[in-house]
Prior knowledge:
By secondary structure, chain A is an all-alpha fold. In chain A, 73% of the residues lie in helices and 2% in strands. Chain B has helices spanning 2-22, 39-58, 78-91, 103-116, 144-157, 171-187, 205-213, 227-237, 253-259, 261-264, 287-301, 307-325, 330-338, and strands spanning 25-32, 66-73, 96-98, 120-122, 137-139, 162-168, 190-197, 218-222, 244-245, 268-272, 343-344, 349-350, 365-371, 374-377. In chain B, the strands form 4 sheets. Chain B has a 5-stranded parallel sheet with strand order 2-1-3-4-5, with helices on both faces. Chain B has a 4-stranded parallel sheet with strand order 7-6-8-9, sandwiched between helices. Chain B is elongated and about 95 Å long. Classes of the chains: A mainly alpha, B alpha/beta.
Amino acid sequence: MDLLQQLTQYAFSGFSTGAIYALIGLGFAIIYNSTGIINFAQGEFVMLGGVLTYFSLTVLRLPYLVAMAVAVAVTTAAGAAFERLTIRPLKSPSPLSLVIITIGGSIFIRGVAMLLWGKDTHALPPFSGNDPLTVGGASIMPQHLWIFGITLLIIAANKFFFYYTISGKAMRACSHNRTAASLVGIDVRKMVLLSFVISSAVGSLAGIIIAPLTMTAYDVGVMLGLKGFCAAIIGGMSSGFGTVLGGLLLGLLESFGAGLISSGYKDAIAFIVLLLILFIRPQGLFSKAQTERV
Amino acid sequence: MKQYVVAVVAAAVMLSSLEAMAAGTVRIGALFSVTGPASFLGEPEKKTLEMLVKEVNAKGGIKGNKIELFIEDTQGDVTKAKQLVSKLIKNDKVVAIIGPSTTGDTMAIIDDVEKAGIPMVSCAAGVKITDPVKKWVFKTPANDHVAGEKLLDYLAAKKQKSLALLTVSDAYGQSGREQLKALAAKKGFSVVADELYSPKDTDMTSQLTKIKGSKADAIICWGTNPGPAVVTRNVKQLGIKIPLYQSHGVASKKYIELAGAEAAEGVVLPAGKLTIYDKMKKSDPQFKVLSDYNLAYKKSYGVEASTFGGYAYDAFELISEAIRKSGTTPEQIRNGIEQVKKLVGVSGLFTMSPTDHNGLDQSAFEMVKVVKGDWDLAK
């Protein structure tokens, strides 16, 4: 295997893990953009997607597609319930209390999942075959193509929703200024609920399409959530290509770091870059600096 | 004279009542990580112990001594282990302790049991637990290097001399990595790649690409599920032809299920005999113990027994044997365990001595291979 082939493989590996991070990062960005909340329970929605699909598939014996639909529906309901029961009752939401609430919520969801479905890791069957595709001496699984495709689809749907529909525009208005939005007649609380519904649906979808590759268990949400959060931060919390580029960058850093420098420092390399970005460009790599009027 | 008779009778009555008290109950404590990250160890251990004690008590106990069990959950937390061990010793007044499940918990409470003089039979694998030997501490899982040695001897027979290591960056993987490197140097192997991955990593193609570029004859992956299953799938994805070896940490059907039968085909690893006892000769000294344990466990809990539960099984058998041969005080139990010779257990044949408080050798492991989604003996 010559160096060029190796480099191609590192790039492929980076892109494929990066796409997973990007997909999860999008969920963070959606909620942040419409409410200003960073939802640390996002990783648990991803977990619920995978675990619920496995459960519907094996215990309820539903067909694959129906099982996925059930998983998305249940996770979305869980996301809505999460907002209604924890975020909405808050009288004076400060960023700190919101962060603590979402962290608490994630621990709760993880615990319930563990009690309901046990601690075992499970694998889902791949969507289309298990034979790797080879391009230029490097290989990739068909499932990765599904991940790329669905990520693109979600971005397109997002763009359309946030820029061309009334609800989407209303949600953006809420993120800019809650008081002003409610003054022009936007039901802010409904918009917050809607953002949780959308992001839990996106999260569960991500959890389902990555489970055939990464496998799923009650505790996968922690690490995946963290990586997705990094992707969103690097991308400046945009709900479009910024986060995707952030995810891909993170994936590539990990893969080339492991391949060319040292696999022991793989995570360290990625997180050092994250810290550098936060120091030098706290608004993210791909967004313009915000000016604050006083 | 009359007084003398009375005294003798009184003494006899007292003695017999003492006897009756002694042949009453034996209080045994257990510390397992039933919940928390190491629950895959603690849960089968707890279930095994409860099953065994129920069985023994139903048969009238050990030499007429009923067993009273005190199981506590350390949650894999060193602080909890420390608190619970003093509860077991001071409040429950146990005469012996089984567990803890993890090396960390065990190391944390060695001081306590040594000071109190209570024998402890740990269910954790770390070498440092019984090396150097501590007076009151024993353990049932074989040392990591025994599995490593078994594996390297197998590789030597196959003339595969340059190794690529891919280990998980937790205590299990790093202990394995150190042992393998030390053994490789001693046995004349060369390590041409030494890669790591994090326990929650979902893609190891970068590390494997690097290994593919090295001149390795064999890849050794050392970790517990799900990492090794991902490695197995990635090896298949990259079309790597170098034979893949795993550690005893994945010696269960779960590994084949996660990796997929197709990708796992041909993977060889050292395994405790419980995994493949149905393929062993009936004349093997362990056959009966393994088959009885597996069937009893299946009957009680509806799932296959695991190697981890076997650690608790062996710990209980060691203590029972000591009570039968020696007595029921902590001192007698300790001495009894140390004198155990060729006790047939789930993990192997135990022969303890003042210099060896583990008592297992390479015969504890068998090289197995994945063939058509099931384990088979590797030749």
